[in-house]
Design a protein that fits this description.
Blueprint: H1 2-85, H2 87-168, H3 171-206, H4 210-232, H5 234-358, H6 362-423, H7 439-451, H8 456-463
C-alpha cells in the first residue's frame, strides 16, 4: 500500500516536474517569440527610419538640385539679357565687327599687293625675255646683213678683177664682160632690193611705222638711181657702191639707235603708265581703307559717347532718385510726427471728454487717463513698429536691387572679358582703341595672343554679324 502511494506521489511529482518543464519551455518559447517579434519590430522600425531618412535626403537633394538649376537658369537668363541689352557688350561687338572688317580689308590689300608684285615680277621677266629675244633677233639680222654685205663685197671685188682682166682682152671679151657685169649688177640690185624688202617687212612687224616705209622707198629710189649710174659709168658705180655701203652702215646704225630709242621710249611710257595706274589704285585703296577706318572709329566714338551719356544720365537719375527718396522719407517722418501728435491730441481730448461726460471721480479719471495713455502708447508703438517694418522692407528691396545690378554688371564684365579672350588672338594688331580698358584686359589680350584659337566662326554664329 505504501509502495503504491509512493509510486502515486512519485508519479504526481514527476508529472509536476514535467508540467514545470513544459511551462518553462513554453515560457522560454514565448519570451523567445516576444524577443524575435521585438527584434523584427525594431528592424522594421529601423528600416522605416532609414527609408524616411533616405526620402528626406533625396527630397533635400532634389530641392538643392532644383534650387541650383533655378539659379543656373536665372544666371543664363541674366547672361542672355546682358548680351541683348548691355550697351557695353553691343559697343564691344560693334568694335570687334569693325576690327574684323578692317583686318579683312588689310588681308585683301596684302593679297592685292602680293598679286601686283607677282604680276610685276612676271611682267619684268617677260619684258626681259622679250628684250633678250629682240636683241638676239637683231644680232642675227645684223650678222646676216654683214654676211650678205661681205658676200656682195667679195663678188664685187671678183667682178672688178674680172673687169680689169677683160679690159686688157679683146673687144669681144670686153663686150661679153659688160653683158655679164650688167647681169651681175641686176642680180646684185635684185638681191639688195630683196634684202631691203625683207628688212622692211621685219621692221613693219616690229614697229609698223610710216617713217620706216618712207625710208625704205627712199633707199629703193637711191638703189635704182645707183643702178642706172653704174650702167653709165663703172668707176662711178664702184664709187657710188662704196659710198652706199658706208651710207647703209650709217643708216643701219641710225635705225638701230632709233629702234633702241623707240623701245626705251615705249618701255618708259609703259612704265610711267603702269606706275601711274598703280599709284592711282594705291591712292584709291588708301582712301577706301581710311574711309573704313574712319567709319569704324566714328561708330566706336558714337558708341563710347552714347555709353558715357547713358552712364551720366543714370548717375543723375540715381542721384535725383536718392534725393527724392530722402525728401519723401523726411516728409513721411514729419507727417508721421504730425499725425502722431494730432492722434495723441485727439485721443487725449476724446478721453478727457469721455471722462467729463462720465463724471468719474478723480481716482477713476487718473486710472482711465493712465489706461488711455497706455493704449495710446501701444498704438503709437504699433505704428512705429509698422513704420520700421516698412523701412526695413524698403531697405531690403533696395539692397536686392543693388545686388541684382551688381550681379548684372559682373555678368556684363565677364561677357566682355570672354569676348576679348575669344577674339584677341584673331585680331592681333587690329584691336580698336578703347577695347583694352585696364591691366586685366591687357593680360587677357596677351594670354590670347600666346595661344588663342580661331573663334571667328563661333562669334559669327552666336551673334549673326559676320
Amino acid at each position: 500500500m505504501l509502495s503504491s502511494d509512493a509510486k502515486l506521489v512519485k508519479g504526481y511529482v514527476d508529472a509536476d516536474a514535467r508540467v514545470d518543464r513544459l511551462r518553462r519551455t513554453n515560457r522560454q518559447r514565448a519570451l523567445q517569440a516576444e524577443l524575435s517579434q521585438a527584434e523584427a519590430d525594431e528592424a522594421r522600425e529601423a528600416d522605416a527610419m532609414r527609408k524616411r531618412r533616405a526620402a528626406v535626403r533625396e527630397e533635400a537633394l532634389a530641392e538643392e538640385l532644383a534650387a541650383q538649376r533655378a539659379a543656373e537658369l536665372r544666371r543664363e537668363k541674366l547672361v542672355q539679357l546682358a548680351r541683348q541689352q548691355a550697351p557695353e557688350l553691343r559697343a564691344l561687338e560693334s568694335k570687334l565687327q569693325a576690327a574684323y572688317t578692317a583686318k579683312e580689308r588689310c588681308n585683301q590689300m596684302e593679297e592685292v599687293k602680293q598679286t601686283k608684285h607677282r604680276e610685276k615680277v612676271e611682267e619684268k621677266a617677260w619684258g626681259d625675255q622679250a628684250f633678250r629675244a629682240a636683241q638676239e633677233h637683231e644680232r642675227i639680222e645684223v650678222e646676216k646683213r654683214l654676211a650678205q654685205q661681205e658676200k656682195l663685197r667679195a663678188e664685187q671685188e671678183a667682178l672688178l678683177q674680172q673687169a680689169a682682166e677683160r679690159a686688157a682682152a679683146q673687144r669681144l671679151a670686153q663686150e661679153q664682160y659688160l653683158r655679164e657685169k650688167k647681169e651681175v649688177d641686176a642680180v646684185i640690185a635684185k638681191v639688195q632690193e630683196e634684202d631691203y624688202l625683207d628688212h622692211l617687212a621685219k621692221l613693219n612687224k616690229q614697229r609698223a611705222t610710216r617713217e620706216e616705209h618712207d625710208t625704205f622707198m627712199e633707199k629703193r629710189r637711191e638703189i635704182l638711181a645707183d643702178e642706172a649710174q653704174r650702167e653709165r659709168d663703172e668707176e662711178e658705180e664702184i664709187r657710188r657702191f662704196m659710198a652706199e655701203q658706208s651710207k647703209r652702215k650709217e643708216s643701219d646704225e641710225k635705225l638701230k639707235r632709233e629702234k633702241e630709242a623707240a623701245k626705251a621710249k615705249i618701255l618708259e611710257e609703259q612704265t610711267r603708265r603702269i606706275n601711274e595706274e598703280r599709284r592711282k589704285k594705291e591712292e584709291l585703296e588708301e582712301l577706301i581703307d581710311d574711309l573704313y577706318t574712319e567709319q569704324a572709329a566714328a561708330k566706336a566714338r558714337e558708341a563710347a559717347a552714347a555709353e558715357a551719356e547713358r552712364r551720366r544720365r543714370d548717375k543723375e537719375l540715381m542721384i535725383a532718385e536718392n534725393e527724392k527718396q530722402k525728401r519723401l522719407k523726411e516728409e513721411r517722418r514729419r507727417q508721421e510726427q504730425l499725425e502722431e501728435q494730432e492722434f495723441r491730441r485727439k485721443m487725449m481730448e476724446k478721453f478727457a471728454e469721455d471722462d467729463r461726460i462720465d463724471e468719474m471721480n478723480r481716482q477713476k479719471r487718473a486710472a482711465a487717463k493712465a489706461e488711455h495713455s497706455r493704449k495710446v502708447a501701444e498704438l503709437l508703438e504699433e505704428k512705429r513698429r509698422i513704420a520700421e517694418q516698412d523701412r526695413l522692407r524698403e531697405e531690403e528691396i533696395a539692397a536686392q536691387a543693388r545686388a541684382r545690378e551688381e550681379e548684372f554688371q559682373q555678368i556684363v564684365e565677364e561677357e566682355r572679358q570672354r569676348l576679348l579672350r575669344e577674339h584677341a588672338a584673331n585680331l592681333d594688331g587690329h584691336l580698336p582703341k578703347g577695347v583694352v580698358q585696364n591691366n586685366n584686359d591687357a593680360d587677357i589680350v596677351r594670354g590670347a595672343r600666346s595661344g588663342g584659337p580661331n573663334l571667328r566662326a563661333q562669334f559669327a554664329a552666336s551673334h549673326g554679324k559676320f
